[in-house]
Specification:
By secondary structure, the protein is an alpha/beta fold. The protein is built from 17 helices and 15 strands. The protein has helices at residues 3-6, 11-19, 25-43, 51-67, 112-119, 162-169, 186-191, 233-240, 281-296, 312-323, 328-337, 342-345, 354-367, 371-392, 423-428, 457-471, 480-483; strands at 46-49, 81-85, 123-128, 140-141, 145-146, 148-149, 152-156, 175-180, 195-198, 222-227, 267-271, 300-304, 396-399, 432-439, 445-452. The strands form 3 sheets. An 11-stranded mixed β-sheet has the order 1-3-2-8-10-9-14-15-13-11-12, with helices on both faces. Strands 4-5 form a two-stranded antiparallel sheet. Strands 6-7 form a two-stranded antiparallel sheet. Helix 5 (112-119) links the parallel strand 2 and strand 3. Helix 3 (25-43) packs antiparallel against helix 4. The protein starts with a helix and ends in an 11-residue tail after the last helix.
Length: 494
């Protein structure tokens, strides 16, 4: 098998090839390391590697396979490489969320979701870039810099899991682990042309991410997988799901099987667009094509208006700000930025991005919102959540992830309406599978969010599998700026 084959295959295919000795873990890991070394200088997605440790783990995996009896069960991801978002703790690797004051701070222990992947045999190649504090939809910070889109360097890779999106989208990792409190898995997956899944509320523990969740914002947050092939989503979800004894809302869940889902008569809902849920013709066309493919498989497509969604962004931002006992300013102080005034934090040319500085200003403004108005907006968010759950029922909702294909760098900063298509599903705690639908005329990925009822993650994944069958799923980028790279650059080593 060639390097190109390894870097096209799903994690499930790679695991099977390694288990049956059609490929070695060393070969698979080396193929992905070689691709990372080639593309990362252009992408700036992987911010710290553990290549030597990964090679040793691959050698150990091959030895375990060689020593195993024919019927001996082996870990499901044995020998398969992966990457993990830098804000998710991996023991010994940086855990800064792009905050300069935390530079050089390694994680002492791995987050439960990361450790579960490692225990399942996955081999971590390194950690990937995030937006500062993981609090914006573009991946840029003053510690590691900006991550670029594998399809066009002038475009954002999304955020906050943009490093994961770019690495998986470039073919340099078969899957990755991200987090989503307001589109942070789905937007990068969309921008970088891969699959991403935000699990149902409480399915995966939030423990081990920095900045940490508290009891107020935990219901909005989820760890979840990004993958170049849809068939990996459910197996990865089974690995990371379940309680950890720390997160109070992470519980035991009976995960269904996508193979048991029939598309015949499946209700498919489309929401008629209204501000701020506007979208470009290309995005709406992609959604219509997805709906048409499902209708051809026997699904029942219907449409309705949901005027309450016009308040989704304001409701989400207020819920996030008022439910959490700690804000961005507090996190920066906790990181070691020092107890300095807001004016110092907002200084141009300082250690914080424009997006973070605007967030600090917005937090101050949010604190001045009258209590009655804030309560009204929080109730509006609760109403949206109930209406979405009832409207989706036992079917799915198709919704564009963004108003346009991947925007140019900086175009989303200071414009919270870019969140309009993603945050309603954080408010509702619903599972969402971001699904690629080919490329537009400019060579940028198109895609659609597939939203299912709570606990019905297997249904949205089943729909994603059908859309992958029809439209082809991930399209490896053919861009010249990735093809014509020179010698690989050295990465920081821990």
């Amino acid at each position: 098998m060639s390097t190109r084959v390894f870097t096209d295959m799903s994690a499930s295919e790679l695991a099977t090839a390694i288990r049956h000795r059609r490929a070695s873990a060393v070969e698979v890991v080396e193929a992905h390391i070689a691709t990372l070394r080639r593309v990362n200088p252009a992408l700036n997605a992987l911010v710290a590697d553990r290549f030597d440790a990964a090679r040793a783990a691959a050698t150990a995996a091959d030895a375990r396979v060689a020593a195993a009896a024919p019927d001996e069960p082996l870990p499901p991801l044995l020998g398969v490489p992966c990457t993990i978002k830098e804000s998710v703790a991996v023991a010994g690797l940086p855990n800064t969320a792009g905050v300069v004051a935390r530079a050089g701070v390694p994680a002492a222990t791995s987050a439960p979701v990361a450790q579960r992947l490692i225990d399942a045999g996955a081999i971590v190649l390194g950690v990937t870039n995030t937006s500062e504090l993981c609090l914006w939809v573009e991946t840029e910070n003053r510690l590691y810099g900006r991550t670029r889109n594998p399809y066009d360097p002038s475009r954002t890779a999304g955020g906050s899991s943009g490093g994961e999106g770019a690495v998986v989208g470039s073919g340099a990792s078969p899957f990755g682990l991200g987090s989503d409190i307001g589109g942070s898995i789905r937007i990068p997956s969309f921008c970088c042309g891969v699959f991403g899944h935000k699990p149902s509320r409480g399915l995966s523990p939030a423990t081990g991410s920095w900045p940490p969740c508290d009891d107020g914002n935990r219901p909005l947050f989820a760890h979840g997988p990004l993958a170049r092939r849809a068939e990996d989503l459910m197996p990865l979800l089974r690995v990371i799901a379940g309680p950890d004894g720390v997160d109070p809302i992470a519980g035991v869940a009976a995960l269904g099987d996508p193979a048991d889902v029939s598309l015949r008569d499946l209700p498919v809902l489309l929401i008629d667009e209204s501000w701020p849920l506007v979208a470009s013709d290309d995005m709406l066309w992609a959604r219509e094509r997805a709906a048409g493919a499902l209708a051809a498989a026997g699904a029942r497509v219907r449409r309705r208006r949901m005027p309450a969604l016009r308040r989704a962004v304001d409701a989400y931002l207020t819920t996030l700000a008022r439910s959490s006992g700690i804000g961005a300013r507090d996190f920066l102080f906790a990181a070691g930025a020092g107890e300095v005034g807001l004016s110092a934090l907002l200084r141009r040319g300082g250690p914080h991005t424009v997006a973070t500085r605007l967030l600090l200003v917005a937090e101050r403004a949010q604190a001045r919102v009258p209590r009655r108005l804030a309560e009204q907006l929080i109730r509006a968010g609760e109403t949206i959540a109930v209406e979405l759950r009832e409207a989706i029922g036992d079917g799915v909702l198709l919704e564009p992830p963004l108003a346009t294909a991947a925007p140019r760098h900086g175009r989303t900063v200071g414009r919270p309406w870019w969140l309009a298509h993603v945050v309603p599903f954080n408010l509702a705690g619903l599972p969402v599978t971001q699904t690629p639908l080919g490329l537009d005329r400019d060579g940028l990925p198109l895609g659609v969010q597939v939203v299912a009822g709570h606990g019905r993650d297997h249904v949205s994944i089943a729909v994603a599998l059908e859309l992958e069958r029809v439209f082809g799923g991930w399209t490896p980028p053919k861009t010249r700026y990735l093809a014509d790279l020179g010698e690989p650059a050295e990465l920081s080593r821990i």
